[in-house]
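>> received
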Amino acid sequence: MTDNVTKIIIVDDHPFVRQSMKRVIEKEQDLSVIREAGSAEEAIRLICREEPDLVIVDISLESEASGLDLIKTLRVRFSRIKTLVLSMHDENIYAERAFRAGAHGYITKKEAPGGIIDAIRTVMKGKPYLRGSISMALRDRLFKEKAMDEK
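>> returned
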């Protein structure tokens, strides 16, 4: 694997979702799914060992720690790793929580398969990713607060 390949770990408690996402992502030459995890606890073990560039997290993990808990842990322990939330939940309800926890992007499972590739590329460029029905007011508020925190 070369240096310009983005190494990805997928964290979702549904094996079918993980495998489907992996198939879509690995069609891209510059993206590689290096591991999959079914829980936040398993993800942390893999992240320590594999050092991915990006972790894609289901916000509703059926494990001791939620997807939001995992994102918070990644922000504190592995700050260089980007996180992208892939969720079945409507963005207006959960996106703000995900970004406040430390996520870099949020995409719903309703998006077309190519949407995940756009989201990955955007997040890896250091830009936040939001798409779909999220309101402009929420978007502005989230990123205005983030800019203030970084000063």
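>> The chain has a mean pLDDT of 87.
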